[in-house]
Amino acid sequence: MSEMWVNMGPQHPMTHGLWNLRVKVDGELVTDAVPELGYLHRGIEKICEYRRYNEVVTLMDRTCYVAGLAWEQLYLMASEQALGVEVPERAEYIRVMCQELQRLASHLMWFAAFVMDVGLMAPFGYGMRDRDVILDLFQSFTGARMTYEYMRVGGVRNDVPVGFTDRCRKVMGWLEQRIKDYEDLCDRSDIFLKRCIDVGVLKAQDCIRNGITGPMLRSAGVARDLRRDRPYSAYPELDFQVAVHDAADVYGRYRVRMEEMRQSIFIVRQTLDHLDRKPGRVIAEKVPRFVGTPSPPPGQESYIVRRGYPKGVGFSAMEEPHGEALAYVVNEGGEQPYRVKFRSPVMVNICAVRDYLVGYRVSDIPAIMGSIDVCVGESDR
Fold first, then answer.
1. CA–CA separation, 73 vs 202, rounded Å?
2. What is the pLDDT of residues 180-194, one digit of tens each?
3. Which of 65, 139, 236, 287 would bridge with 231, disulfide CB 3.0–4.6 Å?
4. Which residue has the higher pLDDT, 109 or 18?
């Protein structure tokens, strides 16, 4: 049979977002694959250069719609380095708590969508239900469920409310049991195992060659995690294990994310203990007043530059739910960042489709792409 190209997207349940996967097939066998991005075309990096530092936080929540707080902190760590701002200890622990709760919410949404991709219906409702409980926690101290706008240059907007730590501990205990339930549902399903084991294999050397990080790399046996290997924020003070598996297939990625959720619960409990023990400020005392203030009066647009506020360059790297995300911010002394650049782990994962799709069948594509955990918003900037 002659080969032909098939478009899966840009609007398709498998794509988990607005992008197009072009697949060359010989019958049912995949012989080539090409990703096509650009359907969103939002230009966030350039828009950041026309917004004050704190105003950019609004855009970060929309960079990845399931990991908004991760992108908020990524951008702010680079901005704080460029501006020379120190973050108080309590704010750092709140930020770490936010990151791990966000990782839980992201992985729960991934799980719900992934099990649908492989043919299991009931776990979808469980994953979405349990993610909603995490969103309830976010709403209690940020006022929002997905677009938080919670972090600020120098810390966070406000402290957690009275009674939050006890409520959060109860949710962590409840969720810990739910993860075991997920595993019981999946690991006892012949359909799930047959569609995941030895499918979409991407070995460690291929991950490294493509620059792939996060759960995909750790599922290939490489124990790399920036929270441990290049610690930031309050992570150096916390104890946790890096989730690793050696299968390098769809099943291995599932196992890594299950263990990551357990480790996130463990980290959140440590941050809650610290918040109960040590009160303190949640925003730096000395923050440049122009980072989020209204525009200056006409004729005074260069006021900050004339004052000679120090220039600087900031670079940050963090382990967001999909992998290693990087941010680069240039401060030229003005009210807005002069340059902003992001590195998306999902962009790298998508660009490697040829390595983990070729040789498998069309029916394997939903399971393989589901295991990648695609968030098109952060890759199509």
1. 30
2. 999 999 999 999 999
3. 236
4. 109
Average pLDDT for 338-347? 94
| Phi, psi (degrees; rounded to nearest 5) at 71 | -75, -30
306, pLDDT greater than 60: no
Fold observed for domain 4-379 = Cytochrome-c3 Hydrogenase; chain B (1.10.645)
DSSP category for residue 265 = H
Answer yes or no: are the C-beta atoms of 282 and 94 closer than 8 Å: yes
Q: Please give the model's pTM, rounded to 2 decimal places.
A: 0.93
Does residue 256 contact residue 218 with C-beta atoms inside 8 Å?
Answer: yes
Q: In the structure encoding, which two tokens stand for residue 214, read together?
A: 């996060």
**Phi, psi angles (nearest 5°) of residue 33:** -155, 140
Task: Tell me how far apart the alpha carbons of residues 74 and 60 are, in angstroms, rounded to a whole number.
Answer: 9
Assigned token pair, 280: 């303190």
Domain boundaries, given as residue ranges, for the chain: 4-379
Looking up tokens 């990648």 gives 372
Question: Cα 322 from chain centroid?
Answer: 5
